[in-house]
DNA sequence: TGTTTTTGTTAGGTATACCTGATTAATTTT
DNA sequence: AAAATTAATCAGGTATACCTAACAAAAACA
């Protein structure tokens, strides 16, 4: 596997990339926005953007979090007017969490940020990068699926849907 | 600029990529290692790997942090045996921070992680990705430089050196 | 030499992401 | 109907990344 050497090189460049990303986006909240998409409150927003109106319990399961943490984050999101909570009619124990219009906008805003550095690429390179990302992402889907055959982490499945429908379609 | 549309597509895939990365590396500390390379204590380690034996003040300046934060992080790193501190002989006010062997190993370990998803790429694609990352990174260097003409953030300069010498050379 | 500047420390604080334990209220099971 | 399970909440905790204010010691400057 001579390939391993090339992989190593690329790995280095990816670290470099992350580093630079981190520094370059040092300006204010833009960075935070982007970074916080995949943790805590951001994760929840993302999950809801795929599948709205979920009970807290379901969210907690999907995102691999305790219900207590979920309660906390949802409360915080509610305060920021990004989600709303209402009691389920069928089951008065459950609280349904929904995105507010505000929340939906917020997600859109965060996801539509086009990193400035993409300007550096010409059409051909953009196409290449697209294809490469497709392959990489597909590989990760596989890895995730395999690591998760037990299905106990529904989040993975969730993200699969999310991305496949919302992003992949515009190829 | 029709290109904007393609950029948008790619931006989406990059978000997808980050998301998946986040989920796929869900296993234990591997994830944390990688993520924490660019913040707080990790940043400091990285800075020292380029240029060792620095006064705390210099580190604080380069990393855009208050000296107090720096003191805190350095203390934490010392506790973890990743750096050592010694008083400068020339200037008894300054504390010189140095990587321990342990710290050096730690950085190597963290940076040499080859993401599994790179397996999915063949030689040609790996080459393409390499070139693309070069271009993107170069663009970011420019952006950083421009944003930082005042030179008040030496970190950027630092990273420039770091990456150019340590990573770029093996092209 | 006395004042000012610089490096670093101590103390205290904020915010975010999580977690465990205990408890309540609603629903299901027996 | 009583017991067990479930969804959520409250209370309290840990860890990390930062920050400001106040202050001591050393060095530079006047």
TrEMBL record, chains A, B:
Q: Name one Pfam family in it.
A: MarR
Q: Does the keyword Ion transport apply?
A: no
Q: Which residues form the signal peptide?
A: none
In this chain the HTH marR-type domain maps to 1-138
Listed A to Z, the keywords are:
DNA-binding, Transcription, Transcription regulation
GO annotation terms (biological process): response to stress
User: What InterPro entries does the annotation carry?
Assistant: HTH_MarR-typ, MarR/SlyA-like, Tscrpt_reg_MarR-type_CS, WH-like_DNA-bd_sf, WH_DNA-bd_sf
Question: From the UniProt record, which GO molecular function terms apply?
Answer: DNA binding; DNA-binding transcription factor activity
Q: What is this protein called?
A: Transcriptional regulator
Organism in which the protein naturally occurs: Companilactobacillus paralimentarius DSM 13238 = JCM 10415
